[in-house]
Design a protein that fits this description.
Chain A: This is Asn/Gln amidotransferase domain-containing protein. Chain A: Belongs to the GatB/GatE family. GatB subfamily. Chain A: It catalyses: L-glutamyl-tRNA(Gln) + L-glutamine + ATP + H2O = L-glutaminyl-tRNA(Gln) + L-glutamate + ADP + phosphate + H(+); L-aspartyl-tRNA(Asn) + L-glutamine + ATP + H2O = L-asparaginyl-tRNA(Asn) + L-glutamate + ADP + phosphate + 2 H(+). The complex is a heterodimer of chains A (342) and B (550). With 342 residues, chain A is of the alpha+beta class. Chain A has 3 domains: 5-135, no CATH class; 164-274, no CATH class; 282-340, Arc Repressor Mutant, subunit A. In chain A, 52% of the residues lie in helices and 10% in strands. Chain A has helices at 36-53, 85-102, 132-135, 150-158, 164-173, 178-186, 188-199, 204-222, 233-244, 250-263, 267-274, 282-295, 297-304, 311-321, 328-340, and strands at residues 5-9, 12-16, 68-72, 76-80, 112-117, 122-128. In chain A, helix 9 packs antiparallel against helix 10 and helix 12 crosses helix 15 (328-340). The termini of chain A are far apart. Chain B is an alpha/beta fold. In chain B, 35% of the residues lie in helices and 11% in strands. Chain B has 17 helices and 11 strands. Chain B has helices at 37-42, 56-65, 71-89, 99-111, 154-161, 204-211, 228-234, 268-278, 329-344, 360-375, 393-404, 407-420, 426-449, 472-477, 483-488, 520-533, 542-545; strands at residues 92-95, 123-127, 165-170, 217-222, 237-240, 260-265, 315-319, 348-352, 452-456, 492-500, 507-514. Chain B has an 11-stranded mixed beta sheet, sandwiched between helices. In chain B, helix 6 packs parallel to helix 7 (228-234) and helix 10 crosses helix 13 (426-449). The chains are: A alpha+beta (342), B alpha/beta (550). The interface between A and B is medium-sized, with 13 and 20 residues.
Chain lengths: 342, 550
């Protein structure tokens, strides 16, 4: 393998040995891919797998993961690509070779390594590929053979974590949509967060929605990874449970979420500290409704005169008076009864 | 059967046409007990009519520790002899200028009663394809002219750690590719026994240097016989260890699956002590073995306390195919004599057949050339070595290699490149690997039946300089005795066993003993007893015999 890069500066050569001694795995795929996007998705899945396994950070821009693509429309040619350029480079190369064929210029398609030029959005010759006979492969005598016992392989197989494909299948069985499971399984840390949340008994769909919605948005805004936010999976599970049980409203839930994301703490602690428990006692809500109606006689008159849109105004005033804690369903029910009682 | 063809009176006499007896050499009589037990058992007294080789290393150690002679005195003896003989022999490509300073340091340590290593004060020659910091390492090639590696080979590092003094870098066929040392890009080394003859190769400089007592011991490398054949030509002990026994880190790679670093000494004991110092696992060579290294020197038994049949029960197999047509008849009878001698020592000697033996030579040349074509691709004149001025990069590579490599090297790179090319791979490289497996299997079978296999180390004694220079196939054919052992990765010991006609006093013949993998111990033990009981006069070449008094 190429452990060092050579750079020729005139007749001086600079040797970059930054990869020396780093273990390297080469995967050669079968020619199974037909389009750029298939190849790009294959590379992305390899990236997920190495990250799931924790064997590499898989960062292409750092050279932790590299790809060489062979494109062949009959005769062989080759090109190299970067991350998102995979798709475009392959499609470009397919059209380039197809065009040469259609122009009767197939002689110009030679076995070579081509480079993707991002600026010009095209491939150019990097180096001509040597013919097979020039490699003159033979077993390297300085590297003794390594005999790997079946037991050793089995041990590794048994110790493998759940891989991306297995995870996606499991999420599918949990009832998640395709969009949800692709998002959650894409990043092993996000998937672990999700798994830990549902392990605490959280509703699967609700947990997915929270993570993909407000939590993802927060991470994106703050440029944080899921491991850097203060919210923990048990607290997310607690939050979901508190809303489901009616202890707090969805609106309050969102407020608490942002507190938890930024500062941490517990759902129970925040509810107590801020006195956020939802008011579900009809008598208490009725009192607040009565008070609001009494304070706004003019609007009440207008409502009863046919301006029923004002119901929203009253609801808002009552919610404000309850500091947002009134159960909205109960509030509206009681409010309507009172408004329509003439 | 073997002994029946011999005249019983000759059993303990080796054949040589013009015996020359050394003026009685100077021997030390122990005045003081030594530290280690093995040195006690080895302190031999001079024999009366013949003089089996004594260990120079143990003699030096004894003298240093008893303060009879200083390390500087020893170093001066060797350096004087080196200066006197080097213009004729030309075994060194580089001679260290710090030898006396290092010897002084050892003397100071001894003065202060500090521990000194087992090789303290021992002058070691190092084949120039073994890397040494602060000294050039050219591998005999122009492409590495003036190259100074920034590190010591593991074997060299271990030698230094044991107190050895590296006296210099010895001549070789370029990259070890050759059997005469005429393939050096720098100079031709002469055989100390007859200056008109080759010392063998590729480690010809290391063998000649020990033979001419220019240094005590030396390191060589053996890819297809490059330690054993020159040992045979120069009448020194050459030891090719099991593949993996000695780290190859810092050995300029020729054929990585065959290369080993080996030892030269003027006695089996010295070769064994040297092997002791350089053996062992090295994390810098993935092919070096993790096997425990036994104390090879614990096997040596002093001649005086040997039983009448000290090798009783040992099974020796004479490889039939090595005593066939194409092998010098005098060499064949030397080996028969050696076999008889082993029988006298109590061994049971039988003939053994290795049917795949003749296939080893072509298989070896394909594999070694293939591996070398890959290994030598590193000489791009950019990372190291001489660079020619060129307008663009490809010419820089091409012109530097054209100018830097000699013709034998180019021939092997071309052969190897061809053998590995698509379409030819199956016919050449793959078949050669299959032959290699066959050779390994047949050695295994033969060594299940026998403790040690014996053969000549080369089909002839040393030949004339220039004789095979333009006939590579004839030169390659000379490797028939040794290449199979490299293909099988086995250890082998070559030691002088007799003489044939030639030169002014006869030319030495070497006996090859092949052992099971990682059983150097047995080879050294048997080799030592063989050497100490052989009634053969001296294997010190006449060139230095008069002045050699150790």
């Amino acid at each position: 393998m190429n452990i060092a890069g050579l750079e020729f500066v005139g007749f001086n050569v600079q040797v970059d040995l930054n990869r020396a001694g780093v273990p390297l795995l080469e995967i050669v795929s079968e020619p199974d891919m037909r389009t750029g996007i298939e190849a790009a998705e294959y590379a992305a899945e390899i990236q997920r797998v190495v990250r799931y396994l924790g064997v590499s950070n898989g960062n292409m821009q750092e050279g932790s993961l590299r790809c060489d693509v062979n494109v062949s429309v009959r005769p062989l040619g080759q090109l190299e690509f970067g991350t998102k350029a995979i798709n475009r480079a392959i499609d470009f190369e397919i059209s380039r070779q197809a065009l040469l064929h259609s122009q009767g210029l197939k002689d110009q398609i030679v076995q070579e390594t081509r480079l993707w030029e991002e600026g010009a959005q095209k491939t150019v010759t990097m180096r001509k590929k040597e013919g097979l006979s020039d490699y003159r492969y033979f077993p390297e005598p300085d590297l003794p053979e390594v005999i790997i016992a079946k037991e050793y392989v089995d041990n590794i197989r048994d110790s493998l974590p759940e891989l991306p494909e297995m995870k996606r299948r499991r999420y599918e069985k949990l009832g998640l949509s395709m969009q949800d499971l692709l998002f959650l399984a894409n990043d092993v840390d996000v998937a672990d967060f999700f798994d830990a949340t549902i392990a605490k008994g959280a509703d699967v769909k609700l947990a997915a929605n929270w993570i993909m919605g407000d939590i993802a948005a927060y991470m994106k805004n703050e440029k944080l990874s899921i491991n850097e936010i203060k919210l923990t999976p048990p607290e997310l599970a607690e939050l979901i449970a508190s809303i489901k049980s009616g202890t707090i409203s969805g609106k309050i839930g969102k407020e608490i979420l942002f507190e938890l994301l930024a500062k941490g703490g517990t759902v129970k602690g925040l509810i107590e500290e801020k006195d956020l428990v939802q008011i579900t006692d009809p008598v208490e809500i009725e009192k607040m409704v009565d008070k609001v109606l009494a304070e706004n006689p003019k609007q009440l008159e207008q409502y009863r005169g046919g301006k029923t849109k004002l119901q929203g105004f009253f609801a808002g005033q009552v919610m404000k008076a309850s500091k947002g804690k009134a159960n909205p369903g109960l509030l509206n029910k009681i409010l309507l009864e009172k408004l329509n009682r003439s | 059967m073997l002994s029946s063809v011999q005249n019983p009176r000759l059993l303990l006499q080796c054949r040589w046409p013009h015996p020359h007896f050394l003026p009685k050499t100077l021997h030390f009589h122990t005045t003081k007990a030594l530290h280690s037990s093995q040195t006690q058992t080895l302190s031999s007294s001079p024999s009366v009519s013949t003089s089996p080789p004594t260990s120079q290393i143990l003699t030096i150690r004894k003298s240093l520790l008893s303060r009879q002679k200083s390390a500087v005195d020893f170093a001066e003896d060797y350096l004087n002899r080196l200066r006197r003989t080097e213009p004729q022999i030309k075994s060194f490509l580089y001679i260290s200028d710090t030898v006396l300073r290092e010897a002084e340091e050892i003397d100071r340590k001894i003065q202060r009663n500090e521990e000194v290593g087992p090789l303290a004060g021992v002058l070691v020659g190092v084949k120039d394809n073994i890397c040494t910091a602060h000294m050039p390492s050219t591998a005999g090639s122009k492409i590495l002219e003036n190259y100074r590696p920034p590190f010591d080979a593991t074997a060299v590092r271990k030698l230094k750690g044991n107190g050895a003094i590296i006296v210099g870098k010895t001549n070789l066929d370029e990259f070890g590719m050759g059997s005469t040392t005429e393939g050096s890009a720098y100079q031709v080394t002469a055989n100390p026994w007859d200056l008109s003859r080759v010392p063998g190769g590729s480690s010809g400089g290391s063998a000649a240097a020990v033979s001419a007592r220019q240094c005590v011991v030396s390191l060589g490398s053996d890819t297809g016989g490059s330690v054993r054949q020159p040992a045979s030509f120069c009448a020194v002990v050459g030891l090719k260890p099991t593949y993996g026994r000695v780290s190859r880190y810092g050995l300029v790679a020729y054929a990585s699956s065959l290369d080993v670093i080996g030892c030269f000494g003027s006695s089996v004991v010295d070769a064994g002590i040297l092997l002791n110092a350089i053996s062992g696992h090295d994390r810098l060579d993935a092919t070096s073995s993790k096997r425990e290294v036994p104390d090879f020197t614990s096997q040596f038994i002093a001649k005086e306390i040997l039983e009448p049949k000290p090798l009783k029960g040992l099974r020796i197999g004479v490889i039939r195919e090595t005593l066939d047509d194409g092998v010098d008849s005098e060499v064949i009878s030397s080996i028969h004599t050696a076999a008889s001698h082993l029988e006298e020592l109590g061994c049971s000697v039988t003939e053994v057949s290795l049917p795949s033996f003749s296939l080893g030579l072509p298989a070896y040349y394909i594999l070694a050339s293939s591996e070398s074509s890959s290994n030598l691709s590193r000489y791009d004149a950019i990372r190291y070595g001489n660079q020619v001025v060129a307008d663009e990069l490809n010419s820089l590579y091409g012109d530097s290699r054209t100018k830097g490599f000699g013709s034998e090297v180019k021939m092997r790179i071309l052969t190897g490149t061809y053998a590995l090319s698509a379409g030819y791979y199956d016919a050449y490289y793959k078949r050669a690997q299959q032959v290699r497996a066959l050779v390994q299997k047949s050695f295994k079978a033969a060594l299940d039946e026998n403790d040690i296999l014996i053969s000549p180390a080369a089909p002839s004694a040393a030949y004339k300089i220039g004789e095979k220079k333009n006939d590579p196939l004839a030169m390659y054919a000379g490797d028939i005795m040794t290449v199979n052992v490299n293909l099988a990765g086995l250890p082998a010991l070559v030691l002088p066993c007799g003489f044939v006609e030639g030169g002014s006093v006869g030319l030495p013949v070497g006996l090859q003993m092949i052992g099971a993998a990682f059983d150097e111990e047995k080879l050294l033990k048997v080799g030592h007893i063989f050497e100490q009981t052989l009634q053969c006069g001296s294997f010190v070449p006449p060139l230095v015999a008069d002045g050699f008094a150790l």
